Amino acid sequence: MPPIKSPLQILISLLLLLFLIPLTTSEIHSTHIQSDTRSTIPISEFGFTHTGRLHLNLTHIQFSPPEPDLSRIGFFLCTRDSIVNVIQQLQSNQISCPLDSTAVKTIFTFNHLKPTTTTPSYDVVFNITDANQFTLVFANCENGKFKVSVDVVSVMYNLDVKNNYRRDYLSAGKTNLPLIYFLFFLMYVLLCGIWVYVLYIRKSSVFRIHVFMLAVLILKGLNLLCETEDKSYIKKTGTAHGWDVLFYIFSFLKGITLFTLIVLIGTGWSFLKPYLQDREKKVLMIVIPLQVVANVAQVVIDETGPFGEDSYTWRQVFLLVDIVCCCAVLFPIIWSIKNLREAAMTDGKAAVNLMKLTLFRQYYVVVICYIYFTRVAVYVLETITSYKYAWTSVLAAEMATLAFYVFTGYNFRPKAHNPYFAIDDEEEEAAVEILKYEDEFEL
């Protein structure tokens, strides 16, 4: 017989649930629970308005062993605050099951189910009148004595009062995402046009890296277009209709090309030298496969719900790989800075190398800021912001990315006369003195 779960074990499960929120944003979400004894299983999360709706369809319900207390098995909605209240009630032994708490919204328990047809299929529609972000949770309070199997299709949406009560399958805080992504797509189309014009009028000064920058812009624009269509179809129908596949493809290509671009610029390829050293090639050979792993992890995270056994593992893999990639792309920039400083003291062109050194130092700082902002600050913003303003974290991330692209393009654009050489003798001498002073200071 499976071990009996005490209220303390249920408490631990709820604590894990608390730390896992938010996990995924679902519209029409299919969940397959197979012989599961967990006391709580998060299904999906959604931001409801006061005209929200939840539709559940249950099929293939089985219990092992049979005849459990069906009043102790069911579904409930909870917020982050209500989870805290339930944990406190469990700790004080006021309740032994989350379904008994008044802090959550109990959708139904299995003893109230009535089949809709002759087949064992059950439909439940629940109206949400309290505007908030809720997580749908399956609860089995039979203390682990019964294994439950059930196929659940959860449909969450809000009724748009201003648009003839049309269903809006996007969460309340993300209903503006299609417009945001489309506006940024138009910005990148404009940037592509400007970049093509710059390459045309400065074609005598165009390096291969500039063409590669154009490819990065195009892939980013296509990624945003697919994201726009993906979110638009979800907003209208609840499913992506295949646009999510294209989004993953272009997201994968965009990620690889962006990290490759940072590495190539950091090595000075095509600007300072037409080749890559072995150690720089190794960085690319590390970054590109890691990007493949990161994108696979992202797909698994997006396509599997919080009930998936490997969801947490893939999330950790994604974070680890992303951190490694971000650190790896910094090494070529550091190597270029070191080489430029050494060259400035030996080849008699201190000012020229100092200007290049200054640029690469600036780029190093900007890359650090970009990585920190998009990986840390955006996550913090997403965590502390109300669900109604979930779109602000997306807007912040896209604005930071756009600013990074513009900075990179502007500073490494093709020029007929390289500004690094436009330095007079006095600046040359000053540059040498600065470098000598830095060396003495470091010693």
Secondary structure layout plus pairing:
Layout: H1 7-20, E1 28-36, E2 40-48, E3 52-64, E4 73-78, H2 80-91, E5 105-109, E6 121-128, E7 132-140, E8 147-160, E9 166-168, H3 177-201, H4 208-237, H5 243-267, H6 278-303, H7 311-328, H8 330-346, H9 350-384, H10 391-411, H11 425-442
Antiparallel strand pairs: 1-8, 2-7, 3-6, 3-8, 4-5, 4-7, 8-9
Helix pairs in contact: 1-2, 3-4, 3-10, 4-5, 5-6, 5-8, 6-7, 8-9, 9-10, 9-11
What can be said about this structure in brief?
With 443 residues, the protein is an alpha+beta fold. 54% of the residues lie in helices and 17% in strands.
Note down, in words, how this protein is organized:
With 443 residues, the chain is α+β, with helices and mostly antiparallel strands. The protein has eleven helices and nine strands. The protein folds into two domains: 7-168, no CATH class; 177-442, Rhopdopsin 7-helix transmembrane proteins, CATH 1.20.1070. It has helices at 7-20, 80-91, 177-201, 208-237, 243-267, 278-303, 311-328, 330-346, 350-384, 391-411, 425-442; strands at residues 28-36, 40-48, 52-64, 73-78, 105-109, 121-128, 132-140, 147-160, 166-168. The strands form two sheets. Strands 1, 3, 6, 8 and 9 form a five-stranded antiparallel beta sheet that branches. A hairpin with a 5-residue loop joins β8 (147-160) and β9. α9 (350-384) crosses α11.
Main features:
alpha+beta, 443 residues, 4-stranded antiparallel beta sheet, Rhopdopsin 7-helix transmembrane proteins, 5-stranded antiparallel beta sheet
Largest sheet: 5 strands, antiparallel
Structural class: alpha+beta
CATH topology of the largest domain: Rhopdopsin 7-helix transmembrane proteins
Tell the overall outline.
elongated
Helix content: 40-55%
Distance between the termini: 70 Å
> What is the mean predicted local confidence, pLDDT?
81
Order of helices and strands: HEEEEHEEEEEHHHHHHHHH
For the secondary structure, the number of strands is 9
User: What is the rounded Rg?
Assistant: 28 Å
Poorly predicted runs are 14-26, 418-429
